[in-house]
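Step 1: inspect the first sequence and its tokens.
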Amino acid sequence: MAGEDSLNATLLPLQEPIQETPNNNSITIFSILNLQNFYIILGPLLSIIICLLVKLDAPTTSTKMLGVIAWVFTWWITNAVPLPVTSMCPLFLFPLFGIASADTVAHSYMDDVITLVLGSFILALAVERYNVHRRLALNVTLVFCGDPLNPSMLLLGLCATTFFVSMWLHNVATAVMMMPVATGILHRLPPAEEQPELMNKFSRAVILTVVYATPIGGISTLTGTGVNLIIIGMWKSLAPEAKPISFNSWFFFGFPVAVLLLLCFWCILCLIYVRKGSSRALSDYLDRALLKRDLEALGPMSFAEKMVLCVFGLLIVLWMTRRISDDLPGWGVLFHGLVGDGSISVLAAVLLFIIPNMKQNGEKLMDWNECKKLPWNLILLLGAGFALADGVQSSGLADVMSKALEFLKDVPYLAIVPAVSLLCSIITEFITSNDATATLLVPLLYHIAINMHVHPLLLMIPGGIATEFAFWLPTSTPSNVVGFATGHIEIKDMLKVGVPLKVAGVSVLALLMPTLGSIVYGTNDGTQ
């Protein structure tokens, strides 16, 4: 193996004569003068220009903070260096620019929200390790398949399965897990070039189901996607005295929004891709017997699968009951409010390293080698977002931004919510990371809301959620890439579904945030 050969090889093969390399100065110069290196220089260059030329009516730290933001976001947007590497930059930029001490900025990279992410992803890795998601997918699809075959109901079943998985796993992980289920359905059909038009349309619909049901399902729960965690983390950072957003309160708003949007998506999909006669064209290739055969091939549910599901269920119950309402405080009151959602998430993760899997003697449900797949890029991005939000507050830049946005206070709220949602959903199409888009826009929405004299969550939540509406382009988000890479869909398919779906998403947010959102978050009680 190549890995073993590299280990056995000497680091410096002295037995071979050292040859002089030819002088390639011209090639080296051309290799340096490329767009990537221009973007690398552009970040610090913009920072220096801002620090030297921009004068704000505020402490000098506010100008420095603006320079740091310009540096970090230039690198994020252009991908000059890998996104997680850029995310570590505040750790040295804040102390060097005199914005905050090294200890202060480091605290932003490990708090309850970050531990929530860590624990949740370890559980997701356990689900993936024991193929729990595949068994779930086959069971649900079998229920919705219908006899005789009903293509619309089969798409609804795949929608519901992907939606449910995405509620608990990160979007990219869900897309990677569910796409084999979708392509497995298509493998039973003839090759794409031999398919009649009705069958080809259905094939496209199957892939699009996973592509779009994934981000929609992620809206439902706090851990469904990094954007949700960014919103609650920013809220905690920008308004530390305000009532925090719990897993429960997010679910009571996010789940109805997601379900309504999923139904809109399913209707759009069926109107465009399911035609009369589709059932007849597909019935020879897709039926309940084939699905049952795949399910039987998995064998009976193992002890390990059952234990992973038990830990998963325990985690959900503890999340939902920690803090139920003001009148019914939940079990968290027993610990005087010291236990957070992150504490529960880590507890569930630790249990996976204690419970045996009953496959090999001494082997547990999880081992640390599996955890090498943890998404450290997302964790570092979250930490950087929280650090920047803290820096904007402590440097005085927040006050400058508030004054600059005072003109928005006269804009009617009913007009600005759909406008903000639409703007955020369009911006996210051109920044591949939804998390980076949310990190950029959510703090800005907080200050806009303050100047409008409305509760900040009335703009932060719809604007943040709208950054997940990256429905138009395959490069808009990694989960889109997963679907596009199958070769079964084209950009025109994404636009056919994505354009009306984005309109539906903005409409749902504009309808539910001032109504249901005000009830769940008590936004009629004041600005915070």
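Step 2: inspect the second sequence and its tokens, then contrast the two.
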Amino acid sequence: MGTFGCCWKIFGVALAAIFLFFHDLCASEKAPNYTFMQNATAAPPISYYDYIIVGGGTAGCPLAATLSQNSSVLLLERGGSPYGNPNITNLSSFGAAISDLSPTSPSQRFISQDGVINARARLLGGGTCLNAGFYTRAAPEYVRNVGWDGKLVNESYEWAEKLVAFEPPMREWQTAVRDGLVEAGVLPNNGFTYDHLYGTKVGGTIFDKQGQRHTAADLLEYANPSGLTLFLHASVHKVLFRIKGKPRPVAHGVIFRDATGAKHKAYLKNGPMNEIIISAGALGSPQLLMLSGVGPADHLKAHNITLVLDQPFVGQEMSDNPMNAIYIPSPVPVEVSLIQVVGITHFGSYIEAASGENFAGGSPTTRDYGMFSPKIGQLSNVPPKQRTPEAITKAVENMKALDDAAFRGGFILEKIMGPISRGHLELQNRNPKDNPSVTFNYFKEAEDLQRCVQGIETIEKIIESKSFSKFRYDFMSLPMLLNMTASAPVNLLPKHSNVSTSLEQFCKDTVMTIWHYHGGCQVGMVVDRDYKVLGVDALRVIDGSTFNYSPGTNPQATVMMLGRYMGVKILSERLASDSVSN
């Protein structure tokens, strides 16, 4: 670049930092009233912007808020607003939105080819509106391996944490899990911290002390209202490319449809720094690239999609961190809690827990198992391939008939790091509203399975610890608890009290998702280290689809950080370019 160029780049970074600092001081702490947000039916047939961001989710919101400071930004979200919906906002209603299977649900169910039932977000704020709320950063080693700037990473985390991260109230059941982890040898006890540290810790949460959820959509409070246009219920059908007379394809616009089906086109303004950025998630981003003609040539040809670039790695290396859990009925009442404590082991398993007396409220019509409920597809009483709609319906009915005491207790879960096992994603049709087909190949690699076994063994130590003794029945042996979990919805008197099968088989048969799937547009395969799509110009992918491994114990903090981080870097490049041209 040369000394002159480097100086201007440094100057641009400094300008961006100063610019954003003063704006951040003015960010509102009140409930948002976004003047820039409207339904896509209000969109003009044709419009022009400096940046077009596809997906108002966990990465897209902080990215849009940052880029809006000195540019015109269009943010297109396929779903609606999270605000005013108690099923999203209230901790005690966790799972209600995920169990909603209506066409307008904020959650869209999909079933992987492995047979595990899963969900993807369909609303502003993305997965932060649906998840269990745990907030924790990636490990420093992860940051170094990816090649991120550590200082800017920390600043970007802190930027998000000012609005959406809190210290959870530690009550009796979660405290018992924490102390049981320490007794089980997951040391040291690191207290409360957002940092990823070996041992046991209390992490952050996006639920405040009143049990109200804060999401990535809240980060739009940082936005410059005059620089941002946000359309809801805007389904992007394809990215448009200029090909003729170009050395390689150049992204220059998108086609999207509103809720009535009316077509709209948005184009980039003229300018060398203007870009389209896809932030549609691990399913949506590779799907949109393929629908736009960037993907494996033979696969696109089979769907009659005009090829723009033969990119065989789009949709490859898909992963989902498998989750397995043990349910422990409690002889005494327990608090309603989602993930607050985590044990970070050296063998590659993360131990977490959630509890509640009548997880979703306490009446016979709402009694539930929260993030482990068959209502949201978490069905462990049959192996994955047998989890049919009929099996789910039967499990929900069985759950309604259970005694109240069966809902008093909690789940201790383990999630493996990585994972190493990989799968792939393919189109099923050319409709962007339909789910693609995805295979994760849970436990295909032996090391993943071994980590699950060691995680379950650690959970057993917690259950048998002195710290946790108050919250388990003496007569319930570990094999009984395993069998009870494997035949969920649980019954205090399980019909089969035989000794459990091997822990390897338990892991395979009871595998569930913790919704941390990623991949499909990985760095080094589909995008470069600046998240620019390889082989085309003016197009980036910035979201969890670029991850080789899931960051930290829970990824949402890092995905929000990445949106802010890349927004600052892109803004810095723009300011430096403007300074040079002036």
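Step 3: confirm your contrast with the notes below.
The two ends are 18 Å apart (CA to CA). The mean pLDDT is 88.
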